[in-house]
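Module 6 notes. Inverse folding takes a fixed backbone as the condition and produces residue identities as the prediction. Think of it as a translation problem where the source language is geometry and the target language is the twenty amino acids. Below is one complete input and output pair. Work through it position by position during the lab.
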């Protein structure tokens, strides 16, 4: 299976909304699709991308398929953003030190 880039997956607002919906509650595919004003095939394409990047797992329960969030892949996004948070915290600390000296 192709491993997609988690950054590309979360770049799309529809996919972010899908993640948000299933992060709080597993949903069957039809119930999930009912939340969007796009075609079911379009929702299915978004679900496929989220599955391929590991943010979503589909589990069969009887005759229905349920989407379940697996947000561990978002750690990659957190790690990437953390370097910039640290950068800006250092810059703001330096600015604070400078302003304290200017008093």
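Target side of the pair, the amino acids:
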């Amino acid at each position: 299976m192709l491993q997609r880039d988690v950054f590309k997956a979360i770049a799309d607002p529809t996919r972010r909304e899908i993640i948000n919906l299933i992060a709080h509650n597993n949903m069957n595919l039809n119930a999930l699709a009912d939340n969007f004003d796009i075609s079911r095939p379009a929702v299915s394409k978004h679900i496929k991308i989220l599955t391929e990047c590991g943010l979503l797992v589909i589990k069969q329960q009887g005759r229905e398929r349920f989407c379940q969030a697996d947000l561990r892949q978002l750690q990659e996004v957190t790690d990437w953003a953390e370097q910039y948070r640290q950068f800006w915290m250092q810059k703001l600390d330096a600015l604070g030190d400078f302003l304290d000296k200017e008093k």
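Reference fact for the lab report: The chain has a mean pLDDT of 91.
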